[in-house]
What we know:
This protein is mainly α. Helices cover 35% and strands 0% of the residues.
Amino acid sequence: MTPDHDDGRDVQTLSLWPDLESLFAGAYGGTHLAAMRKPTEWVKDPIYWSHVLWWVDEDHTPTWQEACERHRQLHEEGPTTSAFSIRNPFDDSGAITRVDHNRVKNLSAAR
Length: 111
């Protein structure tokens, strides 16, 4: 089950991160950052969010179907505790939160 965005650019990856800061350090550093600096080469006029985030219990392995459903949910309902974006994050207890950018810098420097 992959969302049909009618643009040939459906959900492409599913990855797990221990926290928001680790995600930021990985996504906004190194080779990945170079690609993200040229977003129009990857996605033209995106209709859907380019990503979806949600907290996963340690004993749960998310499925591709679950990721696609959460991606659809984010698009249809906007950010909620069960499907949110980097710009509108929630912590693992469901509270609106902010990314600790100092920790991101420290994690990035340690790579």
